[in-house]
Structures are given as C-alpha cells and as structure tokens.
Amino acid sequence: MIEAEGLTKAYGDKTAVDGVSFTVQAGQVTGFLGPNGAGKSTTMRMIMGLDTPTAGTVTVNGVPFARHTAPLREIGALLDAKAVHTSRSAYNHLLAMAATHSIPRKRVHEVIDMTGLADVARKKVKGFSLGMGQRLGIAAALLGDPQTIILDEPVNGLDPEGVVWVRNLVKYLASEGRTVFLSSHLMSEMALTADHLIVIGRGKIIADAPIKDIITGKGQSRTRVRSDQPDRLMHVLAGTGVSVELQDHELLEVTGLDPRQIARSALDNHVLIYELTPLQASLEEAYMELTKDEVEYHSLITTGAPVPAQSGGN
Ligand SMILES: Nc1ncnc2c1ncn2[C@@H]1O[C@H](COP(=O)(O)OP(=O)(O)OP(=O)(O)O)[C@@H](O)[C@H]1O
C-alpha cells in the first residue's frame, strides 16, 4: 500500500505537487492520469525517494522508501526507461543490479523470460529500441520480486503485442495481491487495465475512485434512438438541457434524457421508436470533462498554435 499525506513539491515558485493525499491499495491496478505537467512523475519520484517533498509524507507499506532496508525487494519501479545507458548487455545489467542487492542469478533468468528479452539479453543495451528499453526497465523493476510496483508510462514505445503483455502482466501482479501503480497517457489502455484511478491536475487530486464510477459519474449519458419520424421526435424531445442530434437517416443521439423519459415522450406523442440504446461514456470523455480546467498546455486544433492556460502555467 502506498499512502501520501499532504504531499507537496515546489520547484522555486512552481508548486508541481500541491498537498496531495491518496492511498494506493494492494490487490488492484491503480492508474495515475493527468495532463502534461500535472505532477505525475514528480509524485512517483517522491514515492521512490528520488525527490524530497517540500511538505507532507509518502510511505510504502507504512515506511518511507529510504528507510526500507531492502528497497528493491519492497518496491520495483520503472520511472524513466531511457535512463539505462550502458554498454553492458541486458543480462549483465540485470546481473549487476541483482548482485548489489543479494538477488540470486536464477531470478535474472526469470525476469528475462517474463519480459520476453531472452533473444536480446546478450546484446548491448545501448542499441535497444524504446520498446526493448521498456521491457528491460520492467525486468529491472520486477527483479527483487517486489510487493509494490510503480510504472511510469510502461507501454510507451511498445508494439501492440507488448501493450497487451503489459496489461496482462500488471493484472496478474495485482491478482497476486501486489500494489500496482501505473501512469499512462493512453486512456483506452487505462480503461482496459486499471481497476481504480487517481486523476491529478495542476498538482492537485481531482478524482480518486473506481474506474467504473469515474466513467458513469462524469461522462454525460447518451442514448441512441432510431425512429421512422426523426424530425418529429426531435421536436418532441426538445427542452432545456436536452440535446438531440440527427446522426444518420432515422438515427438520433440524445443527451440529457434517460431512455425511460425518451420512450415515455415518444409514446405520449405516438412516435414509433425501434431502437433505444444507452451509450456509456468512454473513459476518454470522462477524463476530458474532469481535466478540462486543469490542462497546463492547451492547443488550438485549427491553427496548431499552443495557447497558455489563463493561470498557473509555466
Ligand atoms: N526539476 C524540476 N525543476 C523545475 N520544475 C520541474 C521539475 N520537475 C518538474 N517540474 C515542473 O513540475 C510540473 C510537474 O511536472 P511532472 O513531470 O511531475 O508532470 P507529469 O504529470 O509527469 O507530466 P508529463 O505527463 O508531461 O510527464 C511541471 O510544470 C514541470 O515543468
């Protein structure tokens, strides 16, 4: 379990992480989401003792990272896959790490097999692709068979097979009762992988809930309706807070009314409907809604020109 209490990090007058409190539970995958510059990496670095908090505390299984006597066996992290610049082979790199932490050589072979690196393990890391580097970073994170795993953008640079592999791996690790905390920009991937989400924006927590609650709570519910009188149905359903869009011949998408209300109006007005399908908001929609006021770097799609947010930007 990871517990942050009032965790704060300021760089000069820039507060990157602003008094955040959260708990990452064992036995499930917790996703960490937020726009660019929201404070995800800084938070993860503080968990790993790589950055000192300006205020507040963060512990892993009740103990600050620095006070764990065998940290690699307690917490495994992939924070920056590009950080490994070595002329060693992947095998020798992992072997050196294992040796300094009294981890048996057998475990090096295990993590190489787990991460699909067997064919390239004897090659120099310097020549690795981004995806191979990610796999090596994950292998290093798993070396100590840790109870807690922290992965910053683990699927970055991986091919589709690699993405599925990471998804299955983190789910498996969580099912073994481990604490798994991962950040990703890939919303669709997070929706398939995480059980719980913590969303951060401008250094503050803006959501901390099971993923299904975030999707149902934030995205506006929409209903797909088919009718042989779409124009008449649009007229019947019109009202404050209701939006009805003609999508295609006889197909409408209604926002602001639930299916029961739509069916009732149609019946009362003798309009035939032959499809009524509730549409679930995607995590992407829910996330955009949650973070719309929190992004530090807005972009204008029409011109591509970046527009700074009104306040708090760098
Ligand atoms: N060493 C540093 N010195 C000064 N400012 C920093 C430093 N590290 C991070 N920041 C600033 O702190 C804020 C949070 O950065 P952080 O890297 O934690 O965000 P992030 O959510 O991981 O972003 P991204 O998704 O783009 O990686 C940003 O505004 C960043 O510019």
Describe the structure concisely.
The chain is of the alpha/beta class and 314 residues long. The chain contains eleven helices and 15 strands. The strands form four sheets. It has a six-stranded mixed β-sheet with strand order 5-6-7-3-8-9, sandwiched between helices.
Please tell me about this protein's structure.
It is a single chain. This protein is of the alpha/beta class. It has 2 domains: 2-210, P-loop containing nucleotide triphosphate hydrolases (Rossmann fold, 3-Layer(aba) Sandwich); 220-279, Alpha-Beta Plaits. Strands 5-6-7-3-8-9 form a 6-stranded mixed beta sheet, sandwiched between helices. Helix content is 33%, strand content 29%. Bound molecules: adenosine-5'-triphosphate. Residues 11, 14, 16, 34, 36-42, 314 line the site of adenosine-5'-triphosphate. InterPro entries: AAA+_ATPase, ABC_transporter-like_ATP-bd, P-loop_NTPase. It holds the Pfam family ABC_tran. Keywords: ATP-binding, Nucleotide-binding, Transport.
